[in-house]
User: What shape does this take?
Amino acid sequence: VKLVLRIGGSVIASPINPKLILEYVALLRELKRQRHEIVAVVGGGSLARKFITIAKKLGLKERDQDEVAITVSRLFAQLFVKKLGALGCQNVPSTTEQATRFLKDGKIVVMGGLKPGITTDTVAALVAEKICADMLVKATDQEGVYNKDPRKHRDAVKLDNLRFEDLTRIFESDKHKAGIHQILDPEAVKILKGSRVKVVIVNGFNPNNVLLAVKGERIGTMIS
Ligand code: UTP
Assistant: This one.
């Protein structure tokens, strides 16, 4: 499987969880052993948001706030790359072209943000499109997509299967703001809608869920 794995900053970085990062490194090695091609995209989580707050207090404009957050996400990607050693890409790619090249060289690619004005979800969608991925798994802090925000509504119900059109209806398209948190950025949904990539949202606190999703087992929410 050609896989894009989007690891939420909310999962590994809010607070920073070295044990879970190690589990994800092991997962990437296992996926590689199973002959999957993998690009992982990590976010900066609460640390990125802290830096955005500081940047705001300094009076920096949104573009600069984003750039600071991107650096934080790339810092987490760097931890993965270092830990993967020879199996991983040489450095954290700063373009989708670079990511594609590393992938062609047989490396596990780990990247963070790319440019201001988007989220790491959109990075994952752009990469998925670029490499013609079969599957995009988002490891997030919820069991999947709910019919309404489960943090606000106790009666929210998890949905097992969804169409991209349904997703667009559930989330009213928000304008981009530095640090926004959504289960899947509407901007990414727009890109993915036109592609054939299968999207699965799983609870990322258990990395084994990613393995199950890649095996095609029913887990989280599948969007197609
Ligand atoms: P995300 O919100 O995508 O990362 O990026 P995350 O922490 O993994 O999010 P969760 O876990 O899904 O909630 C954090 C911020 O970094 C900037 C944006 O401000 C974004 O909201 N960013 C990230 C960019 O500007 N460009 C990028 O390519 C990536």
